[in-house]
UniProtKB/TrEMBL annotation:
Pfam families, per the entry: GGDEF (PF00990), HD_5 (PF13487), PAS_9 (PF13426)
Single GO molecular function: catalytic activity
Span of domain PAC: 104-156
Domain of life: Bacteria
Protein name: Diguanylate cyclase
Segments forming domain GGDEF: 195-330
Organism: Candidatus Ghiorseimicrobium undicola
């Protein structure tokens, strides 16, 4: 056996027995140096993979004494294997060192004293004798389990962030970035294989009014519910994305404009039937849809061109009143560019008519939207919704009887529809209470005229309706609310709505009592005339009701 001593970092050859090698490490200094190294270190005989020496770090990690380690194979202890590591499956840095005669690095899975795996970063150093032969390999390793774990966590985090970068965090749908990349890919694919491709843009009509009436939290929830509802209606091949705000875009591969229009109309029909329940509110929405398709003839062959075309179609659908779908190619086919007219007066008149017509459409659409909100009270307070419908004819009849102008009658009709819209802000517990309201509950219910006025105040064409809604619970004796106005201080239309409101309330079933007969209701109003109600208006109501008999 060959006995070798390590001196000055070089192995010295002393003797040879049976051709085997034994390394006699008799230097206490050398052992002290090994133990001072914080990393895990062993010295391996490259001939048979046996461990010649091991430092304290290795002994502690494996839970073994020096006598238990020396002579054991490195793969037996560190890898729990019965045979050496074999490339290419196993990347053994010692084999690399023996091959290249240089330092090698690798990452391995090792086992500790409890049989638990841990990740190791390994560096192997060759030890040469004076003849340049590798007589030993220093195997230095470091436990990098925590580092690997952090790397995995970082990797997963990056993957999540990458996924989030393509997803809208609110609805979970693909976002604008994904939309543009995917649309470009689909256009290229459709062009290469001569396939059809359509794009539809879906916009929720008058979504701002939902936020105004129900609050932004409810509006956000509607968007989430709408996203899920829309996704369920679409085909598996359709790619639904959120473009931004209340706009959604659907890429429809292998779909021509005719089929896209058919799908769009089906979506509109289903959306019109759907009621979105958010907390205690029941909300209905309408949408407008613009459609464009990949078309060489219309020069719709780029992402921007198709998207702009669908956006123009959407605008045309909204200009037509909303709640409908429009196709770009059908809207613009055959139309020639307009030339500037020499008759500027005619151009001005045409523009005025267009603006007037557009204004009327917007006014009507906003009014319908607000009326829909007042109708949404039906699920919470059935009396309120039915009451609003029946009040209109009474209020308008009273207005005509009192000689109100056409504009005043128009405002009166709007007020009859919207006078209780502020109850949207009142709790169901109070609205549906069967017993008498407590002072605190009555105080809350008295806020609904102010809430209603605030809701409609932002709509310019309803400016004359605001004081009617605000003051329809005032009394002639000044004991009403919210402002305590008296007599002529109360707008005439508000006095009319107050009587129509009271009359319908008296003749309707309520949670806390049965309806009065019309005769009894009129007697109650007559008794309150001059104190609570305007006597002239009460007398007009009595005359109107007598004529119905």
């Amino acid at each position: 056996m060959v006995s070798r001593k390590i001196k000055n970092g070089i192995l010295k050859n002393n003797s040879q027995i049976n051709g085997d090698y034994n390394f006699e490490l008799d230097s206490s200094l050398f052992n002290a140096i090994l133990d001072s190294i914080s990393d895990i270190l062993i010295v391996i005989n490259p001939k048979d993979y046996s461990i010649i020496a091991a430092n304290r770090g290795y002994r502690r990690k494996e839970g073994l004494l020096t006598k238990d380690i020396r002579g054991k194979k490195c793969y037996e202890i560190t890898h729990h294997k019965n045979s050496p590591c074999l490339p290419p499956k196993d990347k053994c840095p010692m084999l690399e060192t023996l091959k290249t005669r240089r330092v090698a690095r690798a990452e391995h899975v090792h086992y500790d004293k409890n049989g638990n795996t841990y990740y190791s970063e390994i560096i192997t150093h060759p030890i040469f004798d004076k003849n340049g032969t590798i007589k030993a390999v220093v195997h230095l390793s470091r436990d990098i389990t925590d580092i690997k774990r952090r790397q995995e966590e970082t990797k997963k985090t990056m993957q999540r962030l990458q996924a989030l970068a393509l997803r809208d965090p609110h609805t979970g749908l693909y976002n604008y970035r994904y939309l543009m990349d995917r649309l470009s890919t689909e256009i290229e694919f459709s062009s290469r294989h001569s396939l059809s491709l359509s794009l539809i843009i879906i916009d929720i009509d008058y979504f701002k009014s939902i936020n105004d009436a129900y609050g932004h939290a409810a509006g956000d929830r509607v968007l989430v519910e709408f996203s899920s509802f829309l996704k369920a209606l679409l085909r598996r091949t359709d790619i639904l994305t959120r473009y931004g705000g209340e706009e959604f875009v659907v890429i429809m591969p292998q779909t021509n404009k005719r089929d896209a229009l058919s799908i769009a109309n089906r979506l509109i029909a289903q959306i019109n039937k759907q009621i979105f329940k958010v907390a205690s509110s029941f909300i209905k929405i309408k949408v407008s849809i613009g459609i464009a398709d990949f078309s060489v003839s219309n020069n719709l062959v780029t992402t921007k061109a198709i998207f702009d075309a669908a956006d123009k179609a959407l605008q045309r659908a909204k200009d037509a009143g909303g709640n409908r779908a429009a196709v770009f190619s059908e809207l613009y086919r055959g139309k020639k560019a307009k030339t500037v007219s020499d008759d500027y007066k005619e151009d001005v008149d045409v523009l005025k008519r267009k603006i007037s017509k557009l204004g009327q459409r917007v006014d009507q659409a906003v009014l319908e939207s607000m009326y829909a909100f007042s109708k949404s009270l039906e699920a919470r307070d059935y009396y309120t919704a039915e009451h609003a419908d029946r009040m209109i004819s009474i209020a308008v009849a009273l207005g005509k009887k009192l000689g109100l102008s056409k504009q005043s009658l128009n405002n009166l009709e709007k007020s009859a529809v919207l006078h209780d819209i502020g109850k949207i802000g009142i709790s169901d517990v109070i609205l549906r209470k069967k017993g008498k309201l407590s002072p605190e509950e009555y105080k809350i219910i008295k806020t609904h005229p102010q809430i209603g006025a605030e809701i409609i105040r932002a709509v310019h064409f309803l400016k004359d309706v605001v004081p009617i809604v605000l003051h329809h619970h005032e009394r002639l004796d000044g004991l009403g609310y919210p402002s305590g106005l008296k007599n002529g201080e109360i707008p005439l239309s508000a006095r009319i709505i107050a009587i129509a409101d009271a009359y319908q309330a008296l003749t309707s079933d309520r949670p806390y009592r049965k309806a009065y007969s019309k005769k009894k209701a009129l007697e109650i109003l007559q008794k309150e005339a001059g104190l609570h109600f305007d006597k002239k208006i009460v007398d007009a109501l009595i005359e109107i009701e007598k004529r119905k008999k």
